[in-house]
Amino acid sequence: MDIIKVKKKNESFLEIITDPSIEMELAEHFCFFVPGYKFMPAYKNRMWDGKIRLFDLRKKTLYSGLFQYMQEFANARQYDIQPEPNRTYGLAGTKNIIDIPALLNEITLTAGGNEITPRDYQIAALEHALTNGQSLLLSPTASGKSLIIYLAIRHFLEESDQSVLLIVPTTSLVEQMYSDFADYSQFDEWEVTENCHKIYAGKEKYNVKPRVIITTWQSIYKESAGWFQPFGMVVGDEAHAFKAKSLTSILEKCTECRYRMGTTGTLDGTQTHQLVLEGLFGPVHKVTTTKKLMDNNDLAQLDINILLLKYADEFCRIKRDYQQEMDFIVQYEPRNNFISNLAIDCTGNTLVLFQYVDKHGKPLHDMLRDKLKDTDRNLFYVSGETNVDDRENVRALTETQDDAIIVASMGTFSTGINIKRLHNIIFASPSKSQIRVLQSIGRGLRKSADGIDTKVYDIADDLHWKSKKNYTLVHAAERIKIYAKEKFDYNVYDINI
Question: Residues 440, 353: contact at Cβ < 8 Å?
């Protein structure tokens, strides 16, 4: 029987010792096509086959989180796999022993100034992550991933003298996570200011004393391997949003991080391939679903309204490519007038999400500003140009408001930003991205103190001519599929514009 010996080179890589023919099998097995590879110069010039191979034929290495897949590969081919004994691989038989009740008894948890108890699925996810050491937690937006992360970090700091690296995709999320940790520990002896340090543009990243570093991946991916040596635990929040090459650059250098935990709300159509995420963090573990959380009354109920705008024939006859269609839609004044009136008519705090800053976001904001100039209703604008402190101020101010309107770009307010009192979401720009849709909807899933359900207004555009469907109408159909898949209730309304 052919033998595959597996050694743990470090916490990032496995070393594979086997026959050269099996090595070639491994290289082809642990690979995937890069999205859009057919359009890349290297592929067009026949210098590359469009695939990323995770087994390195030269170094004989594979990401440590793929050990389970390695076992499946060997078993399917009746190869004898021989792991190095007495090493942890994030699987049964090599597990850590974690006393979760003892951990929770030692910590006073709060949220909004009130003591809280983690939900059952949060405790189960925490136990799984700590017991296995490596895991990629699949849990939807608003499921309380930051609390799971906080508790995992608190446990690690008690058990180890190493530091923790917490990586997020945006500066806003750095501030959000720091704020969440401060909230959870408000009545606890553990002080965020003493234990946590934030790193992003302009923040100190050397000779830092706090043991928990909260940072964007953009701020650290160019650092040398030595910079990562103090860390024994690495956490990647919203891991699907990381640029693949930068993420691998970071995690490959985290050679001392026995504890690895990634979190994501979805894996479908992610920027970073699932095999890469599992290789770097560990096997996927499904924590819960949005439908379960809504059924248990842990999240706000959603009322999704798809507003299908019907355009006159004179506009439908015109042949447009995708970008031309988008430019027409977002700059069509009657459409923007409809959206602005809808936002004004909504009761409660309303988030209007757009994609294009100059073409759409700013004109929408200006239109709303003019319509609200004689009222006392608060209007906020947030885009990538808005600095981090101002974004955080908008988020905080909104939580004290009852009837505010936020006009925000999807890039800044669709991922990770927690607005606790949000009653309406308007998708002003078409999108077919499952991640973007679900992340955006997630802004309204957190239950507010007033108990009001969240209304979602999905603006769709019907510019079809005869049997030819327009691009954004097709995208609307994709979003409906997402709603159906997630078992959300929705209604479609035709509106002539």
Answer: yes
